[in-house]
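Technical annex, item 7. During the second reporting period the consortium partners agreed on a shared format for inverse folding records so that results from different sites could be compared directly. Each record opens with the tokenized structure and is followed by the designed sequence. A conforming record, contributed by the partner at site C, is shown below for reference.
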């Protein structure tokens, strides 16, 4: 397997990134391009996956961008690493549950590099940490599969503005909060893009 690693320094508009992803899915399926991992940040945007419900939007004034990924409503913005991927399951195992487990393991391994314990929850998709004796979400995951090519990815909160989540019920989970890495660690998370790429390639190559 050969996976291209792409890093974007400037924030990318959500709609633009979706066009790039959709095109890459087509090219990967047709064998024209390599699989992809793309690490970036978005400008402020609230996105709603295919399973979201209107009542999960608490502030009706915010603009919601509907998307074709799985999952519910979430926030993307500065201080959050977006990790998009395009993986051809036609050449891997055609098992979405195994793919999700691998993505979860990858995020856990990324955080382990910074001595942060995190875990997956079989009842609530995403990666969680314990902060002040309660489980809080540190990374959200959303995946879509088209012709057995999996894409979209995960979002890892580094120093995200957590107040932005007050406008929604993040991922439809009422009774649990969202956190970011800067709230639970004094680490500066230098070279985080390199760590993400390394752990991703270790997981999927």
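Designed sequence (site C submission):
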């Amino acid at each position: 397997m050969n996976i291209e690693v792409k890093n974007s320094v400037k924030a990318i508009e959500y709609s633009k990134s979706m066009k790039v992803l959709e095109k890459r899915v087509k090219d990967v399926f047709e064998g024209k391009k390599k699989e992809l991992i793309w690490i970036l940040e978005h400008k402020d945007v609230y996105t709603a996956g295919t399973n979201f419900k209107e009542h999960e939007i608490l502030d009706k004034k915010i603009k919601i961008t509907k998307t074709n990924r799985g999952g519910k409503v979430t926030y993307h913005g500065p201080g959050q690493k977006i990790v998009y991927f395009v993986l051809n399951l036609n050449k891997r195992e055609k098992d979405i549950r195994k793919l999700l487990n691998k993505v979860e393991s990858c995020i856990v391994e990324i955080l382990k590099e910074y001595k942060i314990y995190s875990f997956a929850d079989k009842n609530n998709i995403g990666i969680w940490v314990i902060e002040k004796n309660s489980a809080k979400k540190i990374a959200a995951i959303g995946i879509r599969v088209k012709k057995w090519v999996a894409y979209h990815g995960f979002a890892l909160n580094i120093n995200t503005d957590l107040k932005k989540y007050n406008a929604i019920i993040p991922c439809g989970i009422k009774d649990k909060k969202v956190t970011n890495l800067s709230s639970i660690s004094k680490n500066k998370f230098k070279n985080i893009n390199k760590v993400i790429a390394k752990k991703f390639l270790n997981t999927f190559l």
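The CA atoms of residues 106 and 200 lie 6 Å apart. The chain has a mean pLDDT of 94. All partners now use this format for quarterly exchanges.
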